[in-house]
Design brief:
Its cofactor is pyridoxal 5'-phosphate. By secondary structure, the chain is an alpha/beta fold. Helix content is 45%, strand content 12%. It has 16 helices and 12 strands. α4 packs parallel to α5, α6 packs parallel to α8 and α13 packs parallel to α16. The chain binds pyridoxal-5'-phosphate.
Length: 440
């Protein structure tokens, strides 16, 4: 059917053109090779531990795959077909993470949508950090509590306190303990590399809700494999397992696999199995996916991931301390580290593999780095708030000291060349004005 002249096509074209005009049209990235044809240095992917290129993991995967009773497909929804491999893996995960129950989803996106669309009940409220992932928003939109959703300023305890106080004030059911309040955060935020103050939040929930009807839900997508004992995440690192209603761990980032697990109570697991549409109405993870994720967990349990994570976080500290003193002569609007990383004397933050280079010109900076053989992507509104554009750097255990120093030098050189070009432009304009005046 040819639709090119239809009014549907016209509307779709107009929407894309509008995105073009505002410089926010999304496109698939070009295949990643540098102009010299050699592979680019990866400062982009979420493969934080570089496990996707680990020969150890690859060999382990191929070995386990060839011995597995089932490898192809999974045959259907978890609720319809034999999920022995899935159940065995869930048992492993609940044991490893120390949770009462574990439930696999096909992706972190599906898990967040499934959880938030069905667990909050009518009368409940959902409170989320303003930087929370899109999948939580999509879940809330489909939830019975969608009319009672509130955001708080990123990582601000004062803002969270204010929102919770308002809820207690305005909602009798919340005050009496009959209705619940869910607080959704990410342990490590994907765009900023900031950490949610998890202990402070659990303390606040305990104090604010004496009926224990305030619940914390933590998305550990970017912390999985990197933080906590053997990579169990920030909740485990801080010893908060018993104070969190549900944790989400995804397998697609540091674990170089695909899929996700929700760690929670048996009761909530049962409810999700009955009501989470993103679990019920989809083909479950294929057997080979399960084998792959299982092999990644072998590397967590044998301590390999912890060693890689230590290397990764040392590299992050080195990058910051190498870059920071070299930024002093550059206007912060052109290139700077974010406030939580920019002050050497400030509160010590744990290093993170995610380091945003704040700049009002993210595309030119990214293009400049690309020409030097480095892949670090520009991130602009609507993915981040207006005025908070950046080139997001994701470091990997496989990056070297030389890689990160090259990145810092490239960014500084770009800023200096941009400043020099602006000065030249100004001088030409001044000269031009002088010439115009001399003609008068
Ligand atoms: C914080 C966060 N949660 C959830 C997801 C979704 O996870 P997945 O890629 O497994 O769908 C992502 C990935 O983009 C994420 O960054």
């Amino acid at each position: 059917m040819n639709q090119s002249n239809s009014s549907l096509a016209a509307k779709i074209r107009a929407a894309l053109a509008s995105r073009d005009e505002r410089w926010i049209r999304r496109r698939l990235p070009d295949p990643i090779t540098s102009s010299s044809g050699s592979p680019l240095i990866d400062f982009n992917s979420n493969d934080y531990l570089s496990l996707s290129t680990s020969p150890v993991l690859r060999n382990q995967f191929l070995r386990k795959l060839s011995a597995a009773p089932d490898v192809l497909g999974s045959g259907g929804s978890r609720l319809l077909v034999n999920g022995r491999a899935h159940s065995a893996f869930e048992a492993r995960l609940s044991g490893f993470f120390g949770s009462e129950a574990a439930l696999l989803f096909n992706s972190g996106f599906d898990a967040n949508v499934g959880f938030f669309s069905c667990i909050p009940q009518s009368g409940d409220a959902i409170v989320y950090d303003e930087y929370i992932h899109a999948s939580v928003h999509d879940g809330i939109r489909a939830s019975r509590a969608r009319d009672a959703q509130y955001s708080f300023s990123h990582n601000s305890m004062a803002s969270l306190r204010q929102v919770l106080a308002k809820l207690l004030d305005e909602r009798r059911g919340v005050r009496s303990g009959e209705d619940s309040v869910f607080v959704a955060v990410e342990s490590l935020y994907s765009m900023d590399g900031t950490f949610a103050p998890l202990s402070e939040i659990t303390d606040m929930l305990e104090k604010t809700f004496p009926h224990r009807n305030g619940y914390l839900v933590v998305d550990e997508a970017h912390a999985t494999g990197i933080y906590g004992p053997q990579g169990r995440g920030r909740v485990a690192q801080l010893g908060l397992e018993s104070k969190v209603l549900a944790r989400l761990h995804t397998f697609g980032k540091a674990l170089a696999a695909t899929g996700a697990v929700v760690l929670t109570s048996t009761l909530i697991r049962d409810y999700l199995l009955n009501y989470a549409r993103s679990l019920i109405y989809t083909t479950s993870l294929s057997y080979s996916n399960i084998v792959a994720a299982d092999c990644s967990f072998d590397l967590l349990t044998d301590g390999t991931a912890e060693e890689l994570a230590n290397d990764l976080l040392s590299l992050s500290s080195h990058f910051i301390s190498y870059l920071r003193p070299r930024l002093t002569h550059i206007p912060p609007g052109l290139l700077s580290l974010p406030v939580h990383l920019s002050n050497a004397d400030g509160v010590a933050v744990p290093p993170s593999p995610i380091i945003p280079l704040m700049t009002s010109h993210p595309r030119p900076l990214s293009a400049y780095l690309l020409a030097l053989g480095m892949n670090a992507r520009p991130i602009t509104w609507p993915t981040v708030p207006k005025g908070k554009d950046r080139v997001r750097v994701c470091l990997h255990a496989g990056n070297t000291i030389a890689d990160v120093e090259k990145l810092a030098q490239g960014a500084i050189r770009w800023a200096e060349e941009t400043m020099a070009a602006a000065r030249k432009r100004e001088e030409r304009e001044v000269e031009g004005r002088g010439f115009e005046q001399s003609k008068l």
